[in-house]
């Protein structure tokens, strides 16, 4: 009996389809790439950092058995998380989880208190603001069930839960894992000024890739 032999074209086509399906699965359920566009997480994360985000870790499970065998975890205080911005769910934000459901959170004199106890936050940064700035005092308020209080590490330059409220549990996309590439985009010397900004950015990266890449931040673990 003559064996059926696939054509070279069909083998390549099937390989491409499998690769695309796997890529879409990974992109949708496992890992997401994310770029830091602002300084709200400095100095933990810098403008131009490109991150890998574990999207699977916060996935819901249907039973204790699934929870015990799958690589999932609870949302914890201190997690650097990517989430849908409540005011515009099409946009993704990244902040640090500070307060958990049911806790009382208060911000006073640049210190954060959870249930009356001051948090030790070595990752924060500040700069001096005017006496009337609303980012200094906040609370005390109780975090509702299935909601979280998130803040940027750069406390004086972060739009976070102090402004737009508590973050619903279902808005989390994942936990930030590591920096896979970092480009000092705030120092970009755009060339070809007559071109559109997108084209200028591509040309700038091509010309300055080696000089503006922050090599010391490659594969930097996020904590």
What does this structure look like?
It is built from 4 helices and 12 strands, in the order H-E-E-H-E-E-E-E-E-E-E-H-E-E-H-E. The chain is α+β, with helices and mostly antiparallel strands and 223 residues long. The chain has a domain of 143 residues: Umud Fragment, subunit A (Ribbon). The strands form 2 sheets. Strands 1, 2, 3, 4, 9, 10, 11 and 12 form an 8-stranded antiparallel β-sheet that branches. A 4-stranded antiparallel β-sheet has the order 7-6-5-8, with no helix packed on it.
Chain-wise SSE layout:
Layout: H1 8-30, E1 31-35, E2 49-54, H2 64-69, E3 80-85, E4 88-99, E5 104-108, E6 111-114, E7 117-118, E8 138-142, E9 147-151, H3 161-164, E10 167-168, E11 172-182, H4 197-212, E12 220-221
Antiparallel strand pairs: 1-2, 2-11, 3-4, 3-11, 4-9, 5-6, 5-8, 6-7, 9-10, 11-12
